[in-house]
Amino acid sequence: GFELGGDATGAKIEILDAKGAVVDGWTTGKLSAGLQTFEWDGRTGSGASAVAADPGAYRFRVSAVNGGDTGAATALTAAPVQAVTRGASGVSLQLGPFGSRTLDEVKGIL
Fold it and tell me: What pLDDT does 9 receive?
């Protein structure tokens, strides 16, 4: 998902392969400020299976759209919580390869 700092007429989402090439993309409709989610079906813009052709890692980039202008949107990453710990700095979540994060760094829990 991603986070918008303000309302937008839409968001431009692009899916990129490991080489940075855009394999799919779309623009959403009007969105309110805050956390947003989306799903990608693993297909290219032409409908072919991107994952079957290249089973590597994929990432996305997102930008807010306001009329003809684009602006900032923050891409977020989902991670499974492996442990919850309490220490001197408060409660932390252990997120495997993403390390430890305090609750104030977490945007949402799915």
Answer: 93
